[in-house]
Specification:
By secondary structure, the chain is an all-alpha fold. It has one domain: Growth Hormone, Chain: A. It is built from nine helices and two strands, in the order H-H-H-H-H-E-E-H-H-H-H. It has a two-stranded antiparallel sheet. The longest helix is centred in the N-terminal third of the chain and has 28 residues. The chain is globular, with a radius of gyration of 18 Å. The two termini are 17 Å apart.
Length: 224
């Protein structure tokens, strides 16, 4: 793994921790709905409709819509900012988490956090050979299982430990969710201050990296 790929993997693990943290805060604040896990919200939407719980169905469906809108905004920003894509996306995410903090304790405070999670998906798509999904782990766990199988069968003798990277990504989300749930108990929505500051730091680091490498990229779009 190259130094750049290792840096991208570390960033991906950190962003998974952010997603887990924010998702735990949102899960507790929303009464068991998710901020970044849209499969769960989609299932909740359907189940609520079956049981006639229109209010919860509207809430779950609304969260899915806001999340998708965040992905749209993030992708449009990524297309416009080229080699500055990553710091631009992360700066927007940090700003949205900041808006969520300012909106607390309003019941609408979680909406900017949902937008932020949608935006986060556009920060990084790959770390070398490793596919990175930055707000959900189903695909990561599938890749983990596939690479464990490949290692056991000897199909990839040149990279038998690639599955460890996917395990670390999953672990990042779990640790983030654990910390988020613990801090939410004391700070409620105010717990979002820490992921907001962390993402702002990541934006600064990736901006410095983009500035350092701008001569090599010559304004060309960075690989997603």
């Amino acid at each position: 793994m190259s130094r750049d790929d290792l840096g991208h993997l570390i960033l991906a693990i950190c962003m998974m921790a952010v997603a887990g943290y924010v998702d735990a805060v949102g899960f507790l604040a929303l009464g068991h709905l998710f901020v970044s896990y849209m499969s769960g919200n989609s299932t909740q939407f359907a189940v609520s409709l079956v049981h006639g719980n229109v209010v919860k169905a509207e809430k779950a469906g609304g969260i899915v819509g806001i999340y998708v809108f965040g992905v749209v905004i993030g992708h449009l920003l990524a297309l416009r900012t080229k080699i500055w894509r990553r710091p631009a996306v992360l700066l927007l995410e940090a700003a949205l988490l900041g808006v969520a903090l300012l909106a607390a304790p309003s019941r609408f405070a979680i909406a900017p956090a949902v937008l932020a999670m949608g935006v986060q998906n556009e920060a990084l798509h790959r770390a070398g050979e490793i596919k990175t999904q930055l707000t959900y782990v189903t695909g990561t766990l599938v890749s983990l299982g596939e690479h464990i199988a490949s290692a056991l069968s000897g199909c990839e003798p040149e990279k038998p430990w690639l599955w460890v990277s996917y395990l670390l990504l999953w672990g990042g989300l779990i640790i983030g969710a654990f910390v988020g749930a613990r801090i939410y108990a004391d700070r409620q929505i105010g717990a979002l201050v820490w992921p907001a500051l962390a993402v702002l730091l990541f934006a600064a680091i990736t901006a410095a990296t983009a500035w350092y490498g701008r001569g090599q990229h010559s304004g060309k779009p960075e690989e997603l």
